């Protein structure tokens, strides 16, 4: 390994170490309440060194967000690969989203903050922001691909537009999961409904709506 290659690997390792430290701080305090000083302390780096890798707290947040998108997308792809029919793939994506919600709650919250808030227009052209938008679009594209497959194999009705339906399903699922996450006590106390039960019934509703 040459000197330049070794330095590049060391730089990438330090960058990942900083993201690891930021996750500890952000997940504990909330990214809006956390400070770069706290991240630097956990990473055992000077604040100046931290800013050599990430110019702002927002950029660190986006780096964590990308990790979350990668985890979620990998769960989607793994679930889809286990079944063949389009309708079953749509259901597999939903179940993978439920697993993401249950097993990775901190990433789930980071992701849903991104979906609820508009980024600063001045940052919209940055490489990491574009990577986040592309990662978000990939999830919708996987749903659309599953719908198109289902129309082709006959498991999904043919009178729907795959792209618009994927957008509707993604938006509806985001809303249902946010209610399950934020209003869990209200669901249990006032409606005698477990959040996971509401999510499961949503999946069943979608499946019935898509069937021919």
Q: What would you note in describing this structure?
A:
By secondary structure, this protein is mainly α. The mean pLDDT is about 90. It has two domains: about 55 residues, Homeodomain-like (Arc Repressor Mutant, subunit A, Orthogonal Bundle); about 160 residues, Tetracycline Repressor, domain 2 (Orthogonal Bundle). Helices cover about 80% and strands about 0% of the residues. The termini are far apart. The radius of gyration is 20 Å and the shape is globular.
The CATH class designation of the largest domain is Mainly Alpha
State the major sheet: none
Order of helices and strands: HHHHHHHHHH
Helix content: over 70%
> Beta-strand level of the residues, as a percent range?
under 5%
CATH superfamily of the largest domain: Tetracycline Repressor, domain 2
Low-confidence runs (pLDDT<50, min 5 residues)? none
Secondary-structure-based class equals mainly alpha
Total count of helical runs of at least 4 residues:
10
The CATH topology of the largest domain comes to: Tetracycline Repressor, domain 2
Which outline best applies?
Answer: globular
Query: What is the level-2 CATH architecture name of the largest domain?
Result: Orthogonal Bundle
The overall pLDDT average reads 90
CA radius of gyration: 20 Å
Distance between the termini: 58 Å
